[in-house]
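A favour, since you know our structure tokens better than I do. It will help me judge whether the discrete encoding reads sensibly. The space below this message is yours for that.
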Amino acid sequence: MSAIEFDTIIQGATIYDGEGRNAFCADVGISGDKIIEIGNLSTECGNVIKAQGLALMPGIIDVHTHYDAQITWDPTLSPSPSMGVTTAVMGNCGFGIAPCPPEHQEIMLKNLSVVEGMNLKTLLEGTEWKFESFPEYLKFIDEQRPHANVAVLIGHSAIRTAVMGEESSTRIKPTQKELEAMRDIVDEALACGAIGFASSFSPNHSGFGGRPMPSTIAEDAELYALLEPIKQRKGVFVTAGGGRATPEYLENISKTFECPTFLVSVLAMYNDSAPTASSDYYERCGEALDRGHEVYIHANPHPLSFDFTLRNPYIFYAHRAFDAIKVAAPDQLRSIYQSQSFRDEFAENLTKNQIGVIFNGAWDKIEFDEIPITELAKAANQSPLDWLFDQDLETPFVGKMYQNNDAGVAKLLTHRNAIIALSDAGAHVEFLCDAGFGLFFLRHWAIDAGTFTLTHAIQKLTSDPAAKYRIKKRGTIKEGYFADLVLFDPKTVGISKLFRLNDLPGNGSRLMRSPKGIHGVWVNGTQVIDPDKKQPIQEGPGHILTEFDF
């Protein structure tokens, strides 16, 4: 009989500890926000969860989210906790919303609306600006009482916008005074608890009015100046990259600033048209790791599908022909699409096979109603390009250019430099919902395909990202660790098909999924997801993570 008093006991579950050890059956005793004891716990407890026949794993750690704006009006971080996510890293690609002086709030949100596929009315009506500086932002989201733990990256584009205003997207060189101000912001953010610094070099990242996102035009000298505080303060560096962000480029950053580096790039995703290109990126990152320099790749386990319409054809935005589309009024789009000059320019753009863009002419990868448009165009005796731009502006299409070949993707996911990620939760909500990436990973890659054992798959979602991002005492079921836990049924775990909700500020809509096989989710010892209870908790138990194991 244990002498310890527990707030909760999860009794009789099959425990997957997150560190790769064999599963075992035991009880888990929770007191406050910690796991206090694991074993045969026969003590009295007013809250015993009978979990026989179910599995218990650590909460999923999602290192690639974009909840930066949503968390200001929705501390539940919907839908991530329902999908087993107990820790989310925000500020990816450098697209956070802090710091932000009041005079730049509108342009900050307008840029987000384009680059992250968000409804502008939702952002303008929903975002609560109760902060200006990055420390004030951390304090505000802590007061929001989020339902999951949150770590925040300080973002390059956000900093540039805060310091340089609208010129941040057009003026390449900051003044010396501006550069020093930006460096001071990074230093202050790291000192008060940012997990690291994020940027983007991606040619796909355009902001409002077709302008490039600020960080994408910054020169190396600026980037390196902003990375200087990382060496002293410690933190990770994460970038969305085009051709500039090679493994060798990131290795030099890791070596120079003594930090783990993470790459997000379509160049590191499997593509049938260049089947060896992505694995080459992984091998080069592996060589960097062998030399003692941490270079990892965000590897998405789900097929990367881009839902789009001609009203918002963001997958084409890296091509010059679409510069006019990005700045056009809604009533001008049809005439532009119908013009032969536009179509000829786009066709010419596609002959160049640009590095790092989403779409390079693989028309057979674009589908309407699950039919490749190449087939529909052939039936209409048209080219795919002409057929596409003759369609209605609201016709929904799906582009499936990357991560759609299991044999090719499996080689990437199992690579030692892969970190399972890239949900993009909080962004592109009108077009996709990959917040359930972890449950999909368990269902598809472990239970169905058998590429991973369930033990190894859980490790890849929990202790592995915790170790690489230096997140303390999470990602493992262990005495003394935080009680971030997911109770699930391995026989049924997974995610539903997409469905649409109209529940965002400004009457905005989003695509959603529901979890399958989830019987409970705990964050810091508090149950935030209980399928048997209809009333959600009012105040979230999530912590704002500000101390890391560097």
